[in-house]
Known about the structure:
This protein is α/β, with parallel strands linked by helices. Helices cover 41% and strands 15% of the residues. The longest helix is centred in the N-terminal third of the chain and has 30 residues, at 2-31. Residues 338-361, 373-388 and 390-404 have low confidence and may be disordered.
Amino acid sequence: MTTCxxxxxxxxxxxxxxxxxxxxxxxxxxxHPDRYRLSKTIAVPPRCLSNDDFGTHQYAKLSRYKFHYVxxxxxxxRLLLLIHGYPxxxxxxxxxxxxxSSYYWVVAIDMKGFGDTDxxxxxxxxxxxxxxxxxYDFLTAIGRKKCSIVxxxxxxxxxxxxxxxxxxxxxxxxxxxxxxxYSFLQELSLKRVSxxxxxxxxxxxxxxxxxxxxxxxxxxxxxxxxxxxxxxGNLTEQDVEAFKYTFSRIEDWVGPMNYVRTLLKRKFLGKxxxxxxxxxxxxxxVGNADPYCxxxxxxxxSEYVENFTLKIVExxxxxxxxxxxxxxxxxxxDFMKMPEPxxxxxxxxxxxxIFKKMIGAGKTVVNYGxxxxxxxxxxxxxxxxxxxxxxxxxxxxxFLDRPK
Length: 404
């Protein structure tokens, strides 16, 4: 009975919000037709995409699809697998490819449906268990049985589930601005996600892809405004053009949208089952100026991890790997070299506040700026006092990365 009710709720909300979005877009199209001009297809790729400093372009052919990736570093070193967010591709990791390759064999993959990886259009091709299995097959195809994984944004959708299913494969897991998918779904259920109607609108075919392409892909101009204005991460106009080139066709958006469709459908159609805690050491990095990630999401993410470390970056926004690359690289290296977090032995503290569930996550370290707390009452009071992470999400949540 519950499953039937959830199914009816899913389709009812999808229909209601889709009609609402289409009506509003029709009005805007009549009043402001210039806002709906599509992007121009860029025939020649920007030169930065073929910059040898970022690595070598390779392909791994699995049983059904071909995956594109960029590699750099000595193949005899340990593998560091980088998984991008939305709407991004391997190029988002250019600073990590260049700098971390001195220590690791670094591989930045284009997820299925993104970049130069194959782009099947069927929604069923983006079912989460299938994506996780294909990622395991990808590791096998490049000749590895072990790796460390770093994800950003939507890449966490794949990363969190992968470390849960294959904990023996992953040595370390770093999630940057990417809350556990189930923590997002829980917040959505509690109506703590603003603009939730957008996710239901995405259940429609074609129209969500068209929306992202309007105004000559203005989505990327908005996405990188903070970095262009602050000059952080040395972002250039050519970098923005690289993103626009990669997402200049409507088929370039079908795969990314199918990730959104699959996740939301999973919530309502009885597939959101509980997960056991992963034993993989996990570092969660989030900027205190990130508008897409809330304290609730962070705390609930810790419930799925036995060994959880939180790093709050002072002044950091959402796109940290590009915004503050040197600092993020140093955090990754420090965490990878630390086999076990340095903790004081303390019994769990019963606290009714927002960090209660984080305390129950096992070994937990909260690091804010130059200050470090273990899971104690001081941790709770200090993070509440100093952290500027919004307690409620004011915009779309972290791992979907979608700018306003």
